[in-house]
Design brief:
- The structure is a single chain.
- An 8-stranded parallel beta barrel has the order 1-2-3-4-5-7-13-14, surrounded by 5 helices. The protein has a two-stranded parallel sheet with strand order 6-8. Strands 9-10 form a two-stranded antiparallel sheet.
- Helix 15 (390-408) links the parallel strand 13 and strand 14.
- The radius of gyration is 21 Å and the shape is globular.
- The chain is built from 16 helices and 16 strands.
- The chain is an alpha/beta fold.
- The longest helix has 28 residues, at 198-225.
- It has helices at residues 18-21, 44-48, 64-67, 71-85, 96-99, 110-125, 141-145, 154-169, 185-188, 198-225, 247-270, 277-283, 295-300, 350-364, 390-408, 457-467, and strands spanning 11-15, 89-93, 129-135, 176-180, 230-236, 239-242, 305-309, 313-316, 326-327, 332-333, 340-341, 347-348, 368-372, 413-416, 439-441, 453-455.
- Bound molecules: 6-O-phosphono-beta-D-glucopyranose.
- 6-O-phosphono-beta-D-glucopyranose binds at residues 17, 20, 181-182, 236, 309, 329, 372, 376, 419, 426-429, 434.
Length: 474
């Protein structure tokens, strides 16, 4: 471990998303979003794969996002706890359908606007900098079901209008923005659908392109009209290693990183598609071509910083056709014999974080934020109410160390906002028992619980880490 210090102005914090925390899905004039349709036992990936398309909510089904952890009504209490830990930054998202219930209205929903104004004002009270994701997987249902989703160019205009409204409304309250959460997940669904039908691939490339354009337009708008705003891209992070040193494995791993990671990063940070894109389209058998008129906007709308989520790594090899046994956030690969796996089978690899930070910075040379990281685990509440989550502390300790090493390597890392700083609904499984928080929320998988908040051991640990600016990890 080097004795290099994390910069003084480093932004320590935590992260949540509206659809996994807010609840109140029908309050304050909010419209229905695609995520509202996911019943217990299904996942965000099912939505992407079109497995959950029932436009009617069933009265007898349980939808975990409808109430989630009720951040909508508990935000003051939650923010006070974040402040107690010493947060400098809090990543959250705006639910688009709270601002434009269908996504197509002339005027925004004032109640929705005021809700987020109140949340941002509360954060400012404690000098916590909001980092706001404009779209964290939840899109107004009307845009998805009636207009057909992101393959329809009208969504680009709808997103730009939404961006205009929130940029204008939250002047002086918000400075840091992210456009789309894990934008590369559109293509990563290929990991879960071997031999995906051609139309699905065509849609994935076209839909992703429209999101790139929507994001670029928002960045351009911010640069032209709100010079104080800083807008980043948000990419699902992963590291793919070759399982052996066979050059074929090395090439396969490189190819995977290009497809899953750099394809999106290059467009959003460099402002143009990478050289390997044409080959990807050809090999996937899609007819996608970048419309000539979009080249300029992608260039003009380059993001100001790179942000990513980081949980796990996996391996690729040409030596077997056996089913892939190593899972992770949105990835599937072969298990790495040198790392440990979580209860959900996600590879835990802090060195991989240092590695990918160096790769990202070497490629793009823009400031970086780690906007998600953490361990999803089952917590036990002791008779006295305490929660001894030493496994979570161990995971985060390793990752904070890796991050400091990367800073020492010369990487310009400016923020760290661990995921689910307060327990929330899992995106991939819809469970509550898969917990990431420093703060425990009394709520179970079936929606039973008091919603009471309590501090886990990791709460006190993280408080110490922040107070010592990453020096005290024990
Ligand atoms: C990321 C998402 O994919 O991973 C979050 O941006 C998600 O929304 C997080 O919650 C962890 O995944 P999961 O499935 O454990 O909730």
């Amino acid at each position: 471990m080097s004795d290099f210090r994390v910069p003084e102005n480093f932004l320590w914090g935590g992260a949540i998303s509206a659809n996994q925390a807010e609840g109140a899905y029908r309050e304050g004039g909010r419209g229905i979003s695609n995520i509202d349709l996911i019943p217990h036992g299904s996942s965000r990936m099912d939505v992407k794969l079109g497995k959950v398309s029932d436009p009617e909510l069933q009265t007898d089904a349980f939808y975990p996002s409808h109430e989630a952890i009720d951040f909508y009504h508990h935000y003051k209490e939650d923010i006070a706890l974040f402040a107690e830990m010493g947060f400098k930054m809090f990543r959250m998202s705006i639910s688009w359908s709270r601002i434009f219930p269908k996504g197509i209205e002339e005027e925004p929903n004032r109640e929705g606007i005021e809700f987020y104004r109140n949340v941002f004002t509360e954060l400012r009270k404690y000098d916590i900098e909001p980092l706001v994701t404009m779209c964290h997987y939840d899109t107004p249902l009307y845009l998805e079901e009636v207009l057909g989703g992101w393959t329809n160019r009208q969504l680009v205009d709808a997103f730009e209008k939404y961006a205009k409204v929130i940029f204008e409304e939250y002047k002086g309250l918000v400075r840091y923005w992210l456009t789309f959460n894990e934008i590369n997940s559109q293509l990563m669904m290929k990991n879960f659908v071997p031999n995906a039908p051609k139309q699905m691939l065509e849609n994935a490339y076209a839909g992703l392109h429209n999101q790139f354009v929507a994001s670029a337009r928002a960045v351009k708008l911010a640069h032209e009209q709100y010079p104080e705003y800083v807008v980043g891209c948000m990419i699902a992070g992963m590291t793919t290693y070759p399982l052996t040193c066979d050059p074929q494995d090395v090439l396969r791993a490189q190819h995977k990183m290009q497809e899953d990671f750099y394809y999106s990063g290059d467009v959003m940070i460099r402002g143009h598609y990478p050289v390997f894109a044409k080959r990807m389209w050809r090999e996937d058998g899609v007819s996608f071509e970048v419309p000539e008129e979009d080249l300029e906007i992608l260039k003009e709308g380059r993001a100001d910083f790179f942000s990513f989520s980081y949980y796990s790594t996996s391996c690729e090899t040409t030596h077997t056709d056996a089913p892939k046994d190593g899972a992770g956030n949105l990835v599937l690969g072969y298990k790495n014999p040198y790392i440990q796996y979580s209860d959900w089978g996600w590879g835990m690899d802090a060195d991989g974080l240092r590695y990918i930070l160096n790769e990202i910075y070497g490629r793009y040379q823009v400031p970086i934020m780690i906007v998600e990281n953490g361990l999803g685990a089952i917590d036990t509440v002791e008779a006295d109410g305490s929660i001894h989550d030493d496994y979570r502390i161990a995971y985060l300790k390793d990752h904070v160390r890796a991050m400091s090493e990367a800073i020492d390597d010369g990487v310009e890392l400016i923020a760290f906002t661990p995921w689910g700083c307060i327990d929330l609904v899992s995106a991939s499984t819809g469970e509550m028992r898969k917990r990431y928080g420093f703060i425990y929320v009394d709520m179970d998988d079936d929606g039973n619980g008091s919603m009471e908040r309590s501090r886990k051991d990791s709460f006190y640990w993280y408080k110490k880490v922040i107070a010592s600016n990453g020096e005290e990890l024990e």
